[in-house]
Write a structure and sequence with these properties.
Helix content is about 35%, strand content about 20%. By secondary structure, it is of the alpha/beta class. α1 links the parallel β1 and β2.
Length: about 280
């Protein structure tokens, strides 16, 4: 790929007006402009529509209507998209500064890339950094069975992958990204690990999945994990895969880099994060 790719960025929202402005601005302030922005709102009853209208001139397409959940909204939005590569940003999260230019640079250097996984920074309701998570490169053993160790919105993938493997499973509301990654793998695709933080994940009580980071169980999420396990694999090796993934992170340095950057950045405002505040000395 000798030219900059066109990214289709999807924001799916339902009553996250308190965070939506930050999410949209995190995209509009990227140092890269070859993208389209689509917003799918599920008939929010808060101030979300007012915020969408505030940025309407910078949004390529948006709609507000009831839907069955995030998976249907993903399918609805990406079917309207025109980009070469797709990604989504949850309405309560942010796309970290410089992300699009870094992904574009990677795609120009590695034109055969189909699926890219970035790293994640977690921050709290007040916008203060809590934790930095850097992942490992692809491993055929650890990325097996029902285990794909990536975070959903930190992934960017070529549009034809979604068209080839099928769209998001609209019966799934928590594990639709894991389901999609497994299908990517089954069709022979693997991700490239990008040496950078891409996704800013906001931890707060209203989040659909934030509670899992405090150890709280979500019954429906656990049920969906069982459905995926029955659908694709009886993965008796899952505990071993998870253990090996931890060992891999020790050997390739991603664990120690996560710890080091957490120490360096913890307590700082996520709005002050920049590429200058994060430099990796080695590739993973």
């Amino acid at each position: 790929m000798s030219k900059q790719p066109l990214f289709s960025i999807l924001i799916v929202n339902y009553n996250y007006g308190a965070f939506l402005r930050d999410c949209i601005k995190s995209i509009l302030t990227q140092n890269f402009d070859n993208y389209e922005l689509l917003v799918i709102d599920a008939a929010s009853s808060d101030n979300s529509i007012d915020i969408i209208l505030e940025f309407e001139n910078s949004i390529d397409w948006w709609i507000s209507e009831p839907d069955s959940g995030q998976s249907e909204a993903f399918n609805k939005g990406f079917r309207m998209a025109n980009g070469d590569f797709f990604l989504w940003v949850n309405a309560d999260d942010i796309l970290l500064p410089g992300s699009l230019s870094l992904v574009s640079e990677h795609l120009i250097n590695y034109p055969n890339s189909n699926w890219i996984a970035g790293n994640t920074i977690f921050f709290d309701i007040n916008g203060m950094i809590i934790n930095c998570a850097s992942g490992s490169k692809w491993s055929y053993f650890t990325n097996g069975g029902c285990f794909i160790p990536v975070f959903g919105p930190s992934c960017i993938f070529r549009r034809n992958l979604l068209e080839e493997v099928g769209w998001f499973d609209e019966t799934l509301h928590y594990s639709m990204d894991t389901d999609l990654w497994i299908r990517f793998r089954l069709f022979g695709y693997k991700y490239d690990r990008l040496d950078s933080y891409i996704w800013g994940f906001r931890i707060h009580n209203q989040s659909k999945t934030s509670s899992t980071h405090s150890g709280k169980k979500i019954v429906k999420m656990d049920l969906e994990k069982k459905i995926i396990k029955m659908r694709y694999c009886d993965d008796n090796l899952l505990p071993i895969r998870i253990f090996c993934q931890r060992i891999l992170r020790l050997f390739d340095g991603s664990f120690f880099i996560s710890v080091l950057n957490t120490i360096r950045l913890k307590g700082l405002p996520i709005k002050e994060y920049s590429l200058k505040s994060y430099r990796r000395s080695s590739s993973i």
